[in-house]
Amino acid sequence: MADQLTTVEDHLERILGSIRPLPDFPQPLMETLGLAAAEDVVAPIRLPSFDNSGMDGYAVCHRDVLTASEESPVHLPVVGEIGAGQAQLLAMSPGTAVKIMTGAPVPAGADTVVPYEWTDRGVAQVRIGRAPEAGQHVRRAGEDVDEGDLLIEHGTVLGPRHLGLLAAVGRATVRSRPRPRVVIISTGSELREPGQSLGHDAIYDGNSFLLAAAARRAGAIAYRVGIVPDEPRAFLDALGDQLVRADIVVTSGGVSQGDYDVVKEALAPLGSVWFGGVAMQPGKPQGFGLVGEDETPIFTLPGNPVSAYISFEMFVLPAVRKLMGKAPYSRPTTRARLTNPISSPAGRRQFVRGEYAVDRGGPHVVPVGGHGSHLIGDLASSNALIVVPEDVTSVSAGEQVQVLPLDEDF
Ligand SMILES: Nc1nc2c(c(=O)[nH]1)N[C@H]1C(S)=C(S)[C@@H](COP(=O)(O)OP(=O)(O)OC[C@H]3O[C@@H](n4cnc5c(N)ncnc54)[C@H](O)[C@@H]3O)O[C@H]1N2
Ligand code: MOO
């Protein structure tokens, strides 16, 4: 009997339809690196917040030094000194100079700063040998940011420059959604932890590392749970223990047609998790639903490593981003010239591993390795997926194809 396959779009729509962004709250700045701002941030103060010196030198009245030149220098008495953070001297009279350091407030009465290099660096009296322009080296209050300016728009993904600006205007926190907690459970009695010895029929659990790393890369907090054997009771116990700390659960393995498909066997009776086939390759067997009192979203990904990873990229990543309020939810695609021909099954969207690069001939993509969804070596040496639509069964070298770069921030 032919499989009734769901389209990739319908499955993604089913998932995103049941994901609500996490509630936002004020978080300390350093916690928000890479998170989306959940508020419009308006400047509470001006920047600079007071007129200050842009140079180490002397604060003067411009009209006192208008005529200064090497041949005919101006001499002014030095009546004080202001370092950054020392604002004792708030005003000065015409006909005098005040020694001033970079960043220190320009005293009332002064309107220009003469840099040391144009003077004899005098202590009691200063000799000024060049005429500055009016206002030279005075950094005006508000010239950078005015009070009330919109600094950061709701939804902006916060990077180092945004955090620097927020701190500079005195914000200690910014509203954002927390990092989602993603619990990853690998199922399979054949699995062993890396570092343990392998029997003749065992394999190492690569998937939980692959998925936990992908979740962390997406901005989530990833909890990698130890291996769960192919026993429904053990799986449900592990799941029950984990739900308390999960915003999302991701499982690997046990969802196809085997006799020991533990995830399907354990969850199907609940009735709240959909299991079926999605018209894609790799990654056909999928499951998604809500479990536990808090109706926690659960993704049951296929166990083949490449299938698990591509399923994460197509379905889990958009959900993580929606929880975080980060748009767009899905990775942007681009187009590139295919260097070698590829074939693809009819009726399924194929994701072919590829090496994407841009050179003088423009963007191109080289298919990497075979189609097998166990080929994790090929997966690691690729940096992109070539997307072959459902109705296309072959693509020739030189044709333009849709490409999904996997390592780019968005
Ligand atoms: N009769 C059918 N058999 C299979 C079908 C099908 O439609 N009919 N679909 C195939 C496809 S496509 C996939 S994908 C896999 C999915 O299988 P499961 O999700 O049930 O995964 P398992 O059977 O547990 O494992 C599959 C494969 O992956 C290895 N594996 C599992 N977990 C890990 C892990 N944590 N780290 C590394 N490798 C892992 C496992 O040893 C198997 O080799 O089903 C096909 N079969
Ligand atoms: O869909 Mo499976 O994921 O082709 O190997």
Automatic annotation (TrEMBL):
Domain of life: Bacteria
Higher taxonomy: Bacteria, Bacillati, Actinomycetota, Actinomycetes, Propionibacteriales
Claim: Cytoplasm is one of the keywords in the record: no
EC numbers, comma separated: 2.10.1.1
Sequence ranges assigned to domain MoaB/Mog in this UniProt record: 183-322
Cofactor dependency: Mg(2+)
NCBIfam families (alphabetical): Glp_gephyrin (NF045515), molyb_syn (TIGR00177)
Reactions listed under catalytic activity: adenylyl-molybdopterin + molybdate = Mo-molybdopterin + AMP + H(+)
Gene3D superfamilies, per the entry: MoaB/Mog-like domain (3.40.980.10), MoeA, C-terminal, domain IV (2.40.340.10), Molybdopterin biosynthesis moea protein, domain 2 (3.90.105.10), Molybdopterin biosynthesis moea protein, domain 3 (2.170.190.11)
Pathway(s) of this molecule: Cofactor biosynthesis; molybdopterin biosynthesis
UniProt organism field: Nocardioides koreensis
Family listed: Belongs to the MoeA family.
SMART domains membership: MoCF_biosynth
InterPro entries named in the record: MoaB/Mog-like_dom_sf, MoaB/Mog_dom, MoeA-like, MoeA_C_domain_IV, MoeA_C_domain_IV_sf, MoeA_linker/N, MoeA_linker/N_sf
Swiss-Prot/TrEMBL keywords: Magnesium, Metal-binding, Molybdenum, Molybdenum cofactor biosynthesis, Transferase
Protein name: Molybdopterin molybdenumtransferase
Record function comment: Catalyzes the insertion of molybdate into adenylated molybdopterin with the concomitant release of AMP.
